[in-house]
Each structure stands twice: as structure tokens, then as C-alpha cells.
Amino acid sequence: MDARTTIPYGRQSISKDDIQAVVNVLRSDWLTQGPVVPAFENALAASCKIKYAVAVNSATSALHIACLALGVGPGDYVWTTPNTFVASANCARYCGANIDFVDIDPVTMNISVTDLASRLAAAEKNGKLPKVIIPVHFAGLPCDMKAIHALSKKYGFHIIEDASHAIGAKYRDQPIGNGHFSDITVFSFHPVKIITTAEGGAAVTNNEALAARMALLRSHGITRDSSAFQNDYLGPWQYEQHELGFNYRLTDLQAALGISQLQRINQFVTRRNTLADQYDALLANLPLKTPYRPADQLSACHLYVIRLDDQRIHRQVFETLRAEGILVNLHYTPVHLQPYYRQLGFAPGDFPQAEHHANCAISLPVYPDMCDDDIDRVVTALKWAIEQHQPTKELEHAHIS
Ligand SMILES: *Cc1c(COP(=O)(O)O)cnc(C)c1O
User: Fold this and answer.
1) How many H helices and E strands in the chain?
2) Average pLDDT score, the chain
3) How many angstroms separate the CA atoms of 257 and 269, rounded?
4) Which of 61, 190, 197, 248 to mutate for ligand 1's pocket (most ligand atoms within 8 Å of CB)?
């Protein structure tokens, strides 16, 4: 491989079949709102073993209509993890609700169920229980959904799983998105995620009313189903707007890519896990922690996030890798530290585990089309970067004497 080429942290894998599927739609009668979106929704629902899928133009849109369908509004509380993309929290703000965060578990990097339980007990006392909790399956590793679901029964909140990283993952031998432990699950089909539709997302549920409400909100709040009309039936031109919705529709072009990509989902997840196994072996003796992937769960391995033992060299290692063309990334700057959320009252120190994570985490490249040479290049550069910047023994001794 050419030494000057860069290795991104993630990227799509597009096959000839994917291209043909999109071209076929371009030659058809419909570019949007044709037969392919519902076909994609059916394929998606089948792959997750759930009844209803509502495809939209992004996971951000899916999170928004999921919150609205569950009745989130001004005065309500929504809780999520600070170790996520801002969209997991923004959806609550779109609805005028208050957001709060629950710190992460330092092993899984997912929402801490212990913290969640104690925060819920406190919230019950001061009458500020959340209406919705949004667990995020960070890097593709499923959260402890059984425990979170049990808490939802005890305290009466709804659950939206943000599975933007986790389509194709398995929890207790069942696909993420099957709805056993939540009301709604949201997926992203952005090109860095597991499967792509370019931009795109979906919300899946077993609840017919929630699915219908989300389908309405996705398209202006408009229905063309005459049996649902509130005004008198006047003729075949008629449609009715029943609430204030949005244009969050996916196109047939995108849905065709989605159907084609979905056929390779298991292949993608297997390949990602193989790459993670290779990293695990090659990085075993370095001063860092490799990601937690328990044997009884299948992570989708959307990200491969290492954590350096010595956070003092974090920035330098990061910069050295970038300079070498290894386009590592940070997942995530804790959401509560973003200026928008600081202005709502959050401050450094609020969620120490998520903050510590951000001080030592580096996402190494992982995507299906990565080859062994790419892995070697990443590992060699990482070893070199750590050696370069590690405070040497001699220097430490010099300092002491
Ligand atoms: C990517 C991502 C989103 C947003 O996805 P889009 O499809 O780009 O809107 C939301 N949550 C998480 C955790 C993500 O990683």
C-alpha cells in the first residue's frame, strides 16, 4: 500500500450489487416515495425480528420522532449517556424537554446501570423521574438492557435504544432492535456505520400505535388514508394534516442501497469482529486497554476504542497517528461539555468516568474493507507513537534524584 494514503477510522463498503440496485431505481418511475422504502422497512424489520420499521432520512430524525411519539414535551426529563454523539441528547431538546446524563461504566463504556439505579431512586424522591431513557450501545456493544428494562418497570419510564452503532449486534443471542427490552430502537445508516444508505436512519418498534405516529410525523403529519379522515370525504385528491410533522422521508434510491447492504450485514459484523480480534492480539503487551467484548454478546464493532494507560501522552499519540495518515478519532467528547450543554448548566466534573474516558480514548480504524497491511500500519504507527512520547525511565529517575 502507498505510504501516503490515509486510513480513515471508518468507511462504507460498496459492492457492484449495491451500485446496480441504486441504478435500477434511477431507471424506474419513482425516485422517492415509491415501493422500495416499504420493501426496505420490511427487510429491516425481518432482520431485527420486530413488527414495524419506519425509515427516515437520519438517525437524528428517528430519535426526534421517537421522542415525540412517546409524548416527550416541555417539562419532561430525558436521560442518556454523556459518551455519545450529540444527537442522542438533542432529540429531547427538540421537544422542549430537559436533558440529563448518567455516567458510564468504566469497563463497558456504556451507561452505568448502578449509577442509573441510584439516580432513579433520588429522582423519585424529588419528583423528577425521567419520561424516557436513551441507552446507547457504544461502539456496538449492547447495554445491559435486561437490567435497564427492569428499572423501567419499577420507575415507569420509556426506553429508546440508540443503536446507531449496533445494527447486527446480538444481546442474549437475539438481534439488537427486536424490542424485547425497549419501546423503540433507532438505527443510523450514515456511511461510517455498519450498513449505509448515504444519509439515513430508522426507528423500529413492536407497538402499532407508535409506528403509525412515527410514520405520520415523518411526512408532515399528513395522512392519505381516507378511513382516518376527520373532514368529510370530498374526492381522491384529499389528504389531511393531523399534526405538525416534518419532511424526514428516505428516498427510494437510498432504500435500494439499504436493501442491498442489509444482505451483507452479517458479513460486515463478522469482518469487524475479526479485525478487532487481530488488534486485540497485536496490542496485547502495550500500555493500553483494548475494548471489552464479552464472549456471551456479539458487538457490532462499529468502533475499536483503545484507552491509553497514561493520559499525559494522549494528545501527542493522537497527533502522531494523524500525521502518519492514520485518521484516528475520539468517541466522544462528553456531550455535557459541549458549549451548548454547558450553557444549560452542566460543568466539568459532573460525569467523571465519561470525562476520564475522553482523556485517554482513541478510536483506531475499523471497517470491512480494511486489509492486513492496513492493520499492520496502524499497529506499527501506534507502537512508535507510544514509544516516542512515553516519559522515559531515565527522565523519571533524573527528576527524582
Ligand atoms: C451517528 C449517530 C447518530 C446520528 O446519526 P445520523 O444518521 O447521522 O443522524 C446518533 N447517535 C449515535 C450514537 C450516533 O453514532
Assistant:
1) 14, 16
2) 96
3) 18
4) 190
Listed as own residue / partner, the contacts of 15-23 with beta carbons closer than 8 Å and 24 or more positions apart are: 15/260, 15/264, 17/260, 17/263, 18/257, 18/260, 18/261, 20/260, 21/256, 21/257, 21/259, 21/260, 22/253, 22/256, 22/257, 22/260
Q: Give the whole-angstrom CA distance, residue 131 versus residue 98.
A: 10
Catalytic annotation, residues: 193
| Contact indicator for 159, 125 with CB cutoff of 8 Å | no
Are the beta carbons of 81 and 135 closer than 8 angstroms? yes
pLDDT digits 0-9 by tens, 10-54: 999 999 999 999 999 999 999 998 999 999 999 999 999 999 999
List of residues 6+ apart from 53 with CB closer than 8 A: 40, 41, 42, 44, 45, 202, 203, 204
Q: 129-161: string of b/e by CB count within 10 Å (b at 16+)? A: bbbbbbbbbbbbbbbbbeebeebbeebebbbbb
Q: What is the pTM of this model?
A: 0.96
Which of 63, 164, 254, 331 maximizes ligand 1 atoms within 8 Å of its Cβ, making it the mutation to test the pocket? 164
Percent of the chain with pLDDT over 90: 95
Is residue 364 a contact partner of residue 322, using CB atoms and an 8 Å limit? no
CA distances from 70 to 44, 62, 78, 97, 190 (A): 22, 12, 11, 12, 25
Q: What is the per-residue pLDDT across 120-152, written as a single tens digit (0 to 9) for each?
A: 999 999 999 999 999 999 999 999 999 999 999
In the chain, which stretches have pLDDT less than 50? Answer: 1-2, 401
What's the 140 CA to ligand 1 centre distance in angstroms? 12
**Inter-residue contact 200 to 189 (CB < 8 Å):** yes
- The pLDDT tens digits of the residues spanning 242-255 come to 999 999 999 999 99
Residue 175, all three cell numbers? 438481534
- Ligand 1 contacts (CB < 6 A) are 58-60, 84-85, 87-88, 136, 162, 164-165, 188, 190, 201
* Contact present, 276 and 261 (Cβ < 8 Å): no
